[in-house]
Structures are given as C-alpha cells and as structure tokens.
C-alpha cells in the first residue's frame, strides 16, 4: 500500500484513477488514439498497461477519428456504460464539437431525462512546449458556455486522481482537462478510490487581503506568489475552482466578501474567458463589499505563437499575477 | 437484389401495418399543420415508409435505432407509442421528452428509439457506440443507424463506417436515398452513382436495393441484420426511395424535377404493396380498409389527447440539464 509520503507523478495518478475505477466497474471502457499498449499507451503514456491488464475489448486504440471516438463514447454511455475517451490534444476536440456540444451535452435535456451520457472526455493541452497555434489552446470557456457538461481540471496528482474518479462515476458528460507540462509534476499519492466532489472549490491557502481564483497549474503559480506577498505581510486567499463549470459560486463569493478584492488567474485567453463570467457575477453580487475592481490575468487575444520569446510573452506568468494583485491593492 | 424470397404472410402483413401506420400518421401531421391546429417544423418522410417497415420486422424489441429529423416513420415502425409521439410534436408535458426535444429530437428508449438527431450524419457515430456496448456485453443486440443520401458526404459517415468495420460492430447503416439533400439533387452533391459502393472503401458489404419494394427491402434488411447479430460486422444498405413533400414541409420544392416527383408519387409504394397483398390473397380489401380506419382513429385520438394535454411547467428549464445530485 502507498503511504502518505509516497510521491507520484500526475501521469501515474491519472493512470491509477483509471485502473482503480476499471477494477470496480466493468462498464468502464477506454477509447482513444494510441491508448492501448501495442501503441504505447497514449502519446504521454497515460494509459500504459491498461489494455494489458483489462483486455483489448475494454481498452481500444482508435483510428484518428474524433467524431467517431466521441460518438462511440456517447452511444456506449447511453447504453449504460461509463466510457472514458481520450482526445489527444484539446484542439482536436474542435473536430468533435458536434458530438460534444450538440449530443453529449444535450441528450439528457432533449430526451426529457430518458437518456443520459455518463461519459468522460479527457483532453490535454498547455502552452510552453513550442507546439504553436493548433496544439496548445485552452478552450475551457467553449465547453463551460454549453449547458449540460461539466468542466473539470486539477492542481496536483492527488487532485487529478480524485477528480477523475468523480468524473468517471458522474452521470453527466465531463470534460477532464489535463496539462502536458504538469504531467511530470510530482505530489503526494492519493488514497485509493478517493473521490473529490465535483462543483466544489477548494481554499488551498487562507488569507484575508486578496482572493485569487484559479485552476489547474495556475494554482501552483498562485501559491508561489502568495509566499512572496506573505513576506510583505499581505495574505492571499487562493481558491482552486477544481470544477470550472458549474463553478462553486458560494465559496468564491464567501471568500471575496471577506477579502474585498479578487484577482482571477487563468492561462486561457482573457477576453470572453472563464474569468469574465466570474468577475461579472462577483461584481453584481458583492458590489458594496468590493474595495477594488475585480482584476483578471489571462493570455492576449492571439493564437499561441511558436517562437520561444513570443510564446513566453503570450503565456501568463507569476509576474503578471503579482502585477494584477498590486493593482488590486492600490 | 438477387434474393426474392417472399416472407410469410404474418411478416408481410406486419410490414404493411407498419408502413400504413406511418403513412397515415404523416397524412395527419400534414393535415394538422395545414389546418393550423398544430403548427410545427416537420420533415415529412412520406414515400419512404417501406424501408423502416422492412427493417423493423427484422428487429427485436431490445434492438435499437438512431434516426434523424426525417425519422417519424422509422420510430412508428419501431413501435413508438403514438400518444407520446404526438405529445412531443405538440410540445406538451405528455410527450416522449416532456416537450423538451420536439419533432427533431424524439427519443423513446423503451421501444429502442434511442436518438433523433437534427444534425446530418450524426446518427452513425452514436449508433456505433450503442453497438459497441452490445458487443462488449455480448448481448446479441443490433443497432440501426438511419440517415439520408446527403449524410454520406459528411465526415461522420466515413469515420463511423471505418470504425464499425475494424471493430465488426453489430450495426446496420441504412441510407434512405430520397434523391435530394435539402434542395440539392443527389447527383450534384455525390461523387459516386451508388452510395452502396462506398461500403467497399470500408471493407463491408454494400447493398443497393429498391427501398420501395417490400420484398427486396425485406431481404436486404434480413441479410444485414442477421450478419450484425451473428457478429460478422456492419453492412451499408442504400435503399432507393423518394420524398413526396420536399425538405421541410411547406417548402415550395421549386428545386425538384416535377416529372420525377409526379412519377414517384403516382408510383406510391404503399398502395402498390396493398394492391399486391390483395392480389396475392394475403389480405382482403376489407381487412386492410378496417386496419387503416383503425389506424386513422388511433392517430386522431393521439392528436386530440396531445392538443388538450398540459404544457410543461416552466421549472423544466432547470431539470434534466444535469443529473439530479447523485451523492
């Protein structure tokens, strides 16, 4: 058994979440490009070992056919299974948007609750690897804008494990966003079969001066910035959304009511992003309690560039967050 | 279609019943739209009924179908209850989907009507998924994906056929080639003379059949469904037919070849089937008339019940968007 001191990578955490869920329930199947062992268990090796362990009927490498992959996941989910499909890169979901947006998200409602799609769609992304404009977008706002799907991401290996388990056993379609750079990140091993509830944010650091709402690898960035401010006597409260949609309004509003200041920090393009929705709700709900305008950190409205200096300028940084926090404190 | 085996009387009459009920249901749909008692967006399948009738007599209750916006006949032939169908057409709380899906999204899992999509080509990838589940669970069930000729030009068709073939899924792809995709003629939009020829690109049998010929269509359906059920994999059936009332009911069909249309309507497959059944002594004129009158009464009752049924409560906007809390 793993002890609490065991360190594992995010890839290992996601792999064990899948394996442990598949051990509990036969209806969990994995579909995606290269996911089976003869194809090396996925481009990042996330599903390595699973086809050997659970058989090639349940773990299937697919053709490069995102519509067919997601469609197969939807149909199998409607028939009572809990498929987990892998879309290798978040940008590739664009060619399956009909399946995700018109079908997975809407079938429960359009059928009056007669059918449901307990499907998890894993997809990875992340700027910083010079993969340029079609392999590194953060498209969470697209999915969050569609009613009927949950959008989930994680900030550590144990969080990845617990949130993915919850997605798999949830009765709604879930988009589970992974990050290429954070795949190698190490952290404490999760408790076996532990689940982290969806729709609940996590206050990862308590503070009284400024609330920072973030998710994914940006939680680590916010914690590093919080250390820096702490040395100056300024305490940030860092809220990890965990579930981007539907987001935990209660926790965010309660925190901002106490601190009076909010900075939202995400890697996605700032314009029309997740931060815009949170800012709008907070300003409306807490107008009298805010002591500074809500501020946002996000990427510029520009495709992810290739050239290293351009890419670094495009990506959000600790300095960007620090700067916005200082503006909020003025 | 080489195979001209004539099914037994029971099957022939069952096919006639299904196709006649779909025809009568359509006639009533057009009637209530025209007389203003139930305005709705409606894609008439009139003229195409023999196809799902022949498919459905080869399916079990536990088999499923995924169909499209022009799919009323597919679901009536599969056995969807008329009262619920009409409740949904009317947008009422008594509808299959509580009025939340409407004519383009009729769903009724109890009779195997798993999906109606309003997106061209999207019935196929989802039918694969249902079939994948049947295959993994070894249930010996079959899923039928219905779609039109134009859907064979969208990517989902090609992705779905390829995947079904490599995995030998128990699915049957039934293309109802009614000669027009929206307003554009089949020949103008399609690179092959026969859509069934596309099956060879995916390593599966392609059957080109007169979808208005009940015997030929029955044999095509049986061959494909048996093959799927026996684990031998998918088949693409291209069933040739014609739609009598345009793309969306009420369009002026100025894009249609008038002669082609009048010839097709004069050659209506259902009266033809009816006359043949009487001529071959499978049924009497009176028994079929009684049957049709009974169907018309049933449909009219379903319509009356739908029109007088309550609207959905407005809190339905928040219900079925996500699952009710599980934990």
TrEMBL record, chain A:
<keyword id="KW-0670">Pyruvate</keyword>
<dbReference type="InterPro" id="IPR005475">
    <property type="entry name" value="Transketolase-like_Pyr-bd"/>
</dbReference>
<dbReference type="InterPro" id="IPR029061">
    <property type="entry name" value="THDP-binding"/>
</dbReference>
<keyword id="KW-0560">Oxidoreductase</keyword>
<dbReference type="Pfam" id="PF02780">
    <property type="entry name" value="Transketolase_C"/>
</dbReference>
<dbReference type="InterPro" id="IPR009014">
    <property type="entry name" value="Transketo_C/PFOR_II"/>
</dbReference>
<dbReference type="InterPro" id="IPR033248">
    <property type="entry name" value="Transketolase_C"/>
</dbReference>
<dbReference type="Pfam" id="PF02779">
    <property type="entry name" value="Transket_pyr"/>
</dbReference>
<protein>
    <submittedName>
        <fullName>Pyruvate dehydrogenase complex E1 component subunit beta</fullName>
    </submittedName>
</protein>
<feature type="domain" description="Transketolase-like pyrimidine-binding">
    <location>
        <begin position="8"/>
        <end position="185"/>
    </location>
</feature>
<keyword id="KW-0786">Thiamine pyrophosphate</keyword>
Automatic annotation (TrEMBL), chain B:
<keyword id="KW-0560">Oxidoreductase</keyword>
<dbReference type="InterPro" id="IPR001017">
    <property type="entry name" value="DH_E1"/>
</dbReference>
<keyword id="KW-0786">Thiamine pyrophosphate</keyword>
<feature type="domain" description="Dehydrogenase E1 component">
    <location>
        <begin position="41"/>
        <end position="313"/>
    </location>
</feature>
<protein>
    <submittedName>
        <fullName>Thiamine pyrophosphate-dependent dehydrogenase E1 component subunit alpha</fullName>
    </submittedName>
</protein>
<dbReference type="InterPro" id="IPR029061">
    <property type="entry name" value="THDP-binding"/>
</dbReference>
<dbReference type="Pfam" id="PF00676">
    <property type="entry name" value="E1_dh"/>
</dbReference>
<dbReference type="InterPro" id="IPR050642">
    <property type="entry name" value="PDH_E1_Alpha_Subunit"/>
</dbReference>
């Amino acid at each position: 058994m793993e002890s609490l001191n065991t360190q594992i990578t995010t890839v290992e955490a996601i792999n064990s979440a899948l394996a442990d869920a598949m051990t509990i329930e036969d209806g969990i199947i994995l579909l995606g490009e290269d996911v089976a062992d003869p194809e090396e268990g996925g481009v990042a090796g996330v599903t390595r070992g699973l086809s050997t362990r659970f058989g090639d009927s349940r773990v299937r490498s697919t053709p490069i056919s995102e519509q067919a992959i997601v469609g197969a996941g939807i149909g199998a989910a409607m028939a009572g299974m809990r498929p987990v499909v892998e879309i290798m890169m978040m940008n590739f979901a664009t060619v399956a948007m009909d399946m995700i947006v018109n079908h997975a998200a809407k079938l429960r409602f359009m059928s009056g609750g007669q059918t449901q799609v307990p499907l998890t769609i894993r997809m990875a992304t992340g700027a910083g690897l010079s993969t340029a404009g079609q392999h590194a977008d953060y498209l969470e706002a697209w999915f969050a804008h569609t009613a009927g799907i949950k959008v989930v991401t994680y900030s550590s290996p144990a969080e990845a494990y617990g949130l993915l388990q919850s997605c798999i056993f949830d009765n709604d379609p879930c988009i589970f966003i992974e990050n290429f750079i954070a795949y190698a990140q190490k952290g404490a091993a999760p408790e076996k079969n532990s689940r982290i509830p969806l729709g609940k944010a996590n206050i990862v650091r308590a503070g009284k001066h400024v609330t920072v709402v973030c998710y994914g690898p940006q939680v680590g960035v916010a914690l590093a910035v919080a250390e820096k401010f702490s040395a100056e006597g300024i305490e940030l409260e860092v809220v990890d959304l965990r579930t981007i949609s539907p987001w935990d309004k209660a926790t965010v509003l309660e925190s901002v009511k106490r601190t009076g200041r909010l900075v939202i920090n995400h890697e996605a393009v700032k314009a029309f992003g997740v931060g815009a929705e949170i800012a709008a709700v907070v300003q409306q709900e807490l107008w009298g309690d805010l002591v500074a305008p809500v501020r946002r950190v996000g990427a510029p409205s520009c495709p992810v560039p290739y050239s290293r200096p351009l890419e670094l300028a495009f990506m959000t940084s600790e300095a960007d967050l620090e700067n916005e926090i200082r503006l909020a404190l003025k | 279609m080489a195979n001209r085996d004539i099914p037994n009387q029971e099957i022939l009459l069952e096919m006639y019943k299904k196709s006649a009920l779909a025809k009568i249901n359509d006639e009533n749909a057009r009637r209530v739209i025209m007389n203003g008692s139930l305005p709705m967006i409606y894609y008439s399948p009139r003229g195409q009924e023999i196809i799902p009738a022949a498919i459905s007599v080869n399916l079990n209750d536990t088999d499923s179908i995924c169909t499209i916006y022009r799919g009323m006949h597919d679901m009536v032939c599969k056995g969807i209850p008329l009262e619920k169908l009409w409740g949904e057409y009317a947008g009422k709380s008594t509808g299959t989907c509580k009025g939340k899906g409407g004519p383009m999204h009729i769903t009724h899992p109890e009779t195997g009507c798993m999906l109606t999509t309003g997106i061209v080509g999207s019935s196929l990838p989802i039918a694969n998924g249902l079939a994948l589940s049947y295959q993994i669970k070894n249930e010996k069930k079959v899923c039928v994906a219905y779609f039109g000729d134009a859907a064979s030009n969208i990517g989902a068709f090609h992705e779905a056929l390829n995947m079904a073939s490599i995995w030998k899924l128990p699915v049957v792809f039934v293309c109802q080639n009614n000669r027009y995709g929206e307003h554009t003629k089949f020949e103008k939009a399609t690179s092959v003379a026969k859509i069934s020829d596309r099956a060879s690109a995916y390593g599966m049998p392609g059957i080109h059949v007169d979808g208005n010929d009940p015997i030929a269509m029955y044999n095509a359906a049986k061959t494909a469904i048996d093959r799927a059920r026996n684990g031998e994999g998918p088949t693409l059936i291209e069933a040739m037919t014609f739609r009598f009332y345009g793309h969306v009911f009420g369009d002026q069909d100025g894009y249609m070849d008038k002669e082609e249309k009048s010839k097709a309507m004069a050659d209506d497959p259902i009266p033809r089937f009816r006359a043949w059944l009487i001529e071959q002594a499978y049924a009497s004129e009176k028994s079929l008339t009684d049957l049709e009158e009974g169907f018309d009464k049933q449909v009219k009752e379903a319509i009356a019940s739908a029109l007088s049924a309550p609207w959905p409560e407005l809190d339905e906007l928040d219900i079925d968007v996500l699952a009710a809390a599980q934990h």
